[in-house]
Structure formats: C-alpha cells, structure tokens
Amino acid sequence: MHANFNKTKIVATVGPASNTKERLLALAQAGVDVFRLNFSHGTHEEHFQVIQHIRAINVEYGYSISILQDLQGPKIRTREVEGGEVMLEKGQTVRITTANVPCSEALISTNYTALPKDVSEGDRILIDDGKIELKVQSIDGEEVKATVIYGGPLRSKKGINLPNTLVSTPSLTEKDTEDLYFGLEHEVDWVALSFVRSPTDIHLLRHIIRQRGKDTRIVAKIEKPQAINLIDEIIEATDALMVARGDLGVEVGMEEVPMIQKMIVQKSTDAAKPVIIATQMMESMIDSPRPTRAETNDVANAVLDGADALMLSAETAVGKYPELVIQSMAETIRIVEEKSPRVYNRPYVLDTAAETFYNDSVIAAACVLSKDTKAQAIVGMTTSGYTAFRIAAHRPKAHIFIFTSNKKIIPVLNLVWGVRTFFYDSLVSTDATFNDLKQFLMKEGYLAHGDVFINTASMPIAEKRRTNAIKLSIAR
Q: Which residues of 262-294 are buried (b: 16+ CB within 10 A; e: fewer)?
C-alpha cells in the first residue's frame, strides 16, 4: 500500500477561527502544509501561542508544518468613520487629511502621512479594494482635494491603493521591523514581505535577518505594478514569491491578474523558487460550507499553472468552516494531480553559465530518468535545501523524498511542491546510506516491493557536497 499525498501544498492563515491547538491539528490532518501568521492582526503574545501549538503538533504527531510570518508592510488605510459608515456620492468633492480625526462624508482621514507629498493632480485613489474611486483635484499643504468617481459606503479602517503613485514609504515599516525581530527570535521558517517594489526591499530585509544571525527564507509578495516591471531582479533576490492577487488586482486592474499569475509561476519555477497563489481562492466559504464552481476552477487552474502552494486567508482565519475549506481544496488538488499529465515533467532549460550547472544537470537527468522508468520516488539528500528546490522545479511525477541532517530545513521545505523531508544523520558510506533510506521508505509505506526509485547524492557521501551521482534501484 502506497502512502498518498498531494504535491501542491496548502497554506492556511491562522486567526480566531483556527488558533487553538485542537483547530490547528484538525487543519493539519485535513491537509495544511504551512500556517501563515498575519501580522496585520493579533498581538505578539497571541502569535507566540500559535507558534508553540504548531511546534507541539509537529513533535507529537510527526508533522513538519512550516510557519510563515507575513509582515503587514506600509498598509495605507482610512481611519475610524463617525457612526461606523458614511455614504460617498458620485461627483461630490471630498477632502483627504493626514490629521488624526474621524472620517465624515466630506472629510476622509488616512494614516498615510506622506499622501499630500506623494500624489499628483489626476492620480486615482482607490478605497476598500477599489469599491470607491477618487480622483485627485488639487493638493493644498497637508490636505488633498478629490472628486468621487465611484461612490459607495465608506467604513472604518479600509485599505487605500494608489495605483499611479510612487509611494515613498519603505516596504519595511517600524512595526514590521519589530514584528520581524519577534519572528526571528521564535525561529519562523519563512518571512513574507508585503508591497515589494524592487530587489532593494529584499536585500534590506535579508541584511536585517543576517544581522540577527539567522538565515530565515524570504517570500516576496507581488502586489505592486513596480514589482511586475522588475520581476526578474526580484525573483533573483528572493527565496520564494507570492502572487498576492488582492492588492495586485486593485493596483493593475483585475483583468491583468490571470496572465501575471501565469507569468510569475513560470519564471519562479524556471528559477527553482517556490511560488504561492493567494487571495479569494475559496472566498465564499467564509460563510458557506461549499465553494462556488468558479472558486473550484480557480484552485484547479492554479495547480495546472504549476504553483507550489495555494493560500487561504480569511477562509481559515475568520471563516465558519475552516476544516471544510481545507478538505475541499485538498480534494480539488488531488483530482487535478491525478487526472492531468500537464502538472508533471515541465520542460526545463538549464543555465550553462551557472556555477551549479554540472550539479543541476545531474538532478535534471535524475528527473528525466524517473519519467522514463515511471519511478515511484526520487530520493535526495541535502544540507542547504538546494537539491530539494531543484528537483521540485522539474515537477517529476515521482514522489520527492528528501533526507537531511539539518533539522532547521525540514519545515522550510514543507512549502516546496511535492517535497517530503525526513531527518537522517548517519553518513557512513554511500551503500549503507542508500540502504537505510530504502528501508525507511519501505517501512513507512512510501515504497513497495518492486517499485523503481532513484537516489541522488554527492559522493563521497561524508563530504556533503553538491549532488554528483544518480543510482537507479528496485525496492526489494
């Protein structure tokens, strides 16, 4: 009997609907691979509790669930609204102030103090995911005058997007830096940076992480038009990407998002960097026990695009049916992966100029061999995680089992497509090691008698260098 599992990973956001140990365990059992802690909400104390629960679940139940810390970034918002809601009518003039006063029909207050400096006449200001649109008429000192193009109800603390404006606030705010220190202290596996605009944002974050003596991996959230223009440089600078379709759809126009999603998935996988698709994947399940047909299609298409992971936000953080959401998403992923050959064996052009070219060629050959022999598994060894990222980029149909003596990398790799990672630190000889790994995989039900499997390793094995060897075997 083979143990079966989905290749495309699931990221679930933790919130009031899911933050107890029992709830987190139920979500893990339903198929969550990564828990996202959203630092736009919650106190450090609350996040610390969740981190402890996840770590305890990993130890007690043998999971290696990853923790992704998502930094808020320079989220521009309106302030409180008098009476909770006011109506903005099409054609009316409103004043926008940076003063800390309540919003009213004629006056909108924002936490973004640089607004009068950053916007120009004619710029669009979008509020609440673009439901309200304003156009800048004039700037007068600390105030901006604007016309309402599309009106509607304005409620407290709604997001503001400035699609035409070069926002001067850094991607890493003071709050983010404090949150980051907290995350690094508690050894989160991944940290996501919101509103990335250029590779410099990533370099700055990496510098702070290194200063703290850590090597935490970075996810660049792509939600600004400027990031699209510099996407190749950002991919090179980061460790993983997230297509954050919410703000991205408001900033570039939602009709552009499907092709941007496909482009980013393609480029990220070409670079062997994991990519997460996020926002509204199962939005209706916040209140409904079943997804819409369109949402199920969206999940299926993201799997076909080749995403490493699909992310749920409010659905698991505050929704009524967090477990059902995971079950529904996991089942859709399973069916697509079972029935579509398109998911597997993607064409891959190696970079002959890369210093890792020879090692990458060995991994590529192992993946081709796995396809030709219909192998059940590719078994790799890594200390840094590099081998796992490279094998996954080829999207082999064979299961990817990675063994490492570096315990810290095990949950990190849980975000990566198809990868299952185990601890192993007895490196006597190549033969003995290969035999140990085979015995383990057979005992756990991952390999059955007669299965073809492929080992990749670096020989001599005790030196732990880059992959330079392939061995084809049949499980006996």
A: bebbebbbebbbbbbbbbbbbbebbebeebeee
